[in-house]
Each structure stands twice: as C-alpha cells, then as structure tokens.
Amino acid sequence: MKATDLLYGKYRNLLLATAMFNLGFVIWFSFAPFTGEIAEEFGLSVAQLGVVASAAIIAVPLGRIVVGPMTDRFGADVTGGFTLVLVGIFAVISAFATTYEVFTASRIVASLAGITFVIGIQHVAEWFDEENLGTAEGIFAGVGNAGAGLGAYFTLPRIFGEGYVDPIFGSAFLATSSNWRAAFFYTGIVAILLGITYYVFGGAARSEAKREATKAGVSLDQWTFIATRYGAVVLSVAYVMTFGLELAMNGWLGTYYREAFGQGDVVIAATFAATFSIAAGLLRPIGGYVSDVVARTERDILPYFEGEYRNQWTFATLVFVMVSMFVMTLAGLSGSVYLAVVAGFFVGMGCAFAEGAIFAQVPAMFPDNSGSVAGIVGGIGSSGGAIYPLVFSATFLPNLHVGYAVVGATMIPIIALTAWAFQPRIAARANDEGWLVSGDRDRFRTTAEGVGADDD
Asked: Does the predicted TM-score (pTM) go above 0.70?
C-alpha cells in the first residue's frame, strides 16, 4: 500500500470507527434523558429506574467479550456493520413498545450498541502504529464517548422535547409520551444506514499481512491465556471502576439531579448530567496522549513504580477517580446542585484520563489480538455499569448522595491490587504470568507496552 493510501486509510477508518462508537453511545443512553416520561408511562419507581439503567447495560459485558475475538476473526468492517444494523432494528422496535416487558427486552438488545467500543478499539489498533496508538485510541474513544453527553443528554431532549409530535408519532401516540419514541426510532434508522456504510467503506486492517496475523491468532487457548495474565486482570478491574462508573453515571445522573435536587425540567436535568458525559468523553484523548508522552520521554511521575512509566500515569488517574467519588457525596450533601454538577464534572474528568491511560496500554499488550484483549477488558469493565446504579438507587441508603461514597469505598481494593501489580518486580512479568492458566509466552508473542512492558 502506498504511503498516501495508508494515511488516507488510517484516517478514513478512524473516522468510521469514531462515528460508529459515537452513535452507539447515543443509542445506548438515549433512554436516560427520558426516564421521567418512561417512568410515568410504565408506572416505575425510582428504584425500578435503577433496574432499567442496569438492564440497559446488562448485555454489554458478555457481548464485548464475545465480539472481541469475532472482530479479530472476521474484521471490524463486518462485525461493526452487522452490530449497527442489529442495534438499529431493535431501537426501532423499542420505539413502538406498548408494554414494559417489550420495552425492556428490546432495549436490552439495543444496548448492544455498547459493544461498538471493542470493535472500534480493534479497528483503530489494526491501522495505527504503537507509538501513536494511545493518542489514536484516545481520539476514537473520547469523541465516541462524548455521544452520551452531546447526543443522548444534550441534543436528544432538545430535538425531541416534551410534547413532540410528527407524522409517524402523531395521533396513534397522543395518549402517551411520543418524544422518547421518536428519539429511539430516528436514532435506530441512522444506525441501520451507518451500519451499511461501515461495511461498504471500512477496511479491516492496514495490510493483508496484518489482517492474516490477527485472524490466525484467534483460539480458545489464546483467549484464556490473555484473560488470566496479571496485566489483563488488573487493567480489567481498573476499567470496572472507570468505564463501568462512567456507564453508571451516564445512565443515572439525569435521575439523580431530578430526584435529589428537584430539577423537574428534563432539559435542565439532562444538561447538568451532560457536563459529566462531555468531560468523560472529550477529555479522554488527554489520558492516552499523556501515557504516550511519559512512555516516550521515560518520565517517572511516581518514583515508587520506577521505570513503569505508563503504569504510573494510570495509577495516578485511578486514585483521582476514587477520591472524586467521596467529593461527589460531600458536594451533594451540601445541598447545592451547582456544587454537585462541578463535582460530577471532575469525576468525569478522572474517568476520561484513566480510561485513556488504560486503553493506551491494552491493545499493545497483545498486538495481534487487540480485539480479544479489548473485549476482555472492555467486557469486564462494563459490568460496573450494571452494578453501580443499583448502589446509587439502593433504598437502604439514607439519601441519594451517599451512594457515591459507598462506590468509592469499593474502589479501595482495586487500587490496592493495582499498586501490587504495578510494582516493577511484578510488572516485569505481568504479561507472562497469571492466575489459573499456565502458558508459554512464546506461543502468544507480544511486543507489549502495557503492564510490565517498560521493563522488557
């Protein structure tokens, strides 16, 4: 491939992957700004809304784990195109649901829009070299994540405001809220069209040799080896407390600002929630970029982990996320919604930096199996998005503010495990050794620059 063609291919596929993930996040969280109308129509309590928020995420962890190796095997153009069409069809079905059961079931399938993250991570890794991988993945994931804020929270409530009616959602739905139905319908149609475009114009890899190397590496032995290495396990649980938290907050904050502070206006509540999503999305490239910089310049920012440059940055961001959760509770208990919004912004910023740092490391751990690695870390990490909303809305808590501190406390063991794994003597073998499954690294040769790579 000529240099100009390669450059064009890189950015064409980065653009396609980013558009796919951005729309995926819009669809994934499109229910969040409309929880008030949906709750009223189906007679749901606040606790039941927490269940709905979890249900919208529940299929994603397993979906990501499965789609990762499938993307390695068949290519991102195939899995990305198919996923968008499938998600679009069920988003349209949910728009016409008249029972809570049909609505919930169709939204669970539509929530598979969240697996587009893994597909895109693999797609970008197949096109960009390692030295720029953190920045490229940060741009992809950052702009894509912003779909939850700019799209789901900020744009949809304004386009499909209260009382919205059009020729499709007119007289047949006048007795119910038709605005959320229209939002689901039209985003579903866009997903179907983008899925076809992705399949036609997407390229699986920068070269045939790269495509064949990735395709050949897919096996159950390879997957279990990767999934049980120290590095993969630690980055997976770190992603639970960052991306899992982001998912939970994206689905919950609109309800939180409405119920805890009496912000009954759906547009205002959604706007407050969008500040978190925008921070968590648009700032993510910074996390990947800083990881690239500290690795290239060999800069020790935490001397305790001397020589583990990417790991140091990742650890610092994880600690910031944990501390910010306690601050979120304090801000809420102050009674000021504006302090809570500012605190939420800083939580989003911490998530963005940490996620960018983690996924600057993940694809490089096993460069010919980036889909499998992304699926493992992304899938396990997504589970936090299904668990944390249940804590936020738990009826045994004295108020809706305390849940953030409870979640922050659950992050302490993850921080401790990360500190153990990032020690130079452990990090040096984090991609070779693991739990449960033994293996020979030569069978899965890597030029990893993930956990332990700085010592190779």
From this structure: yes
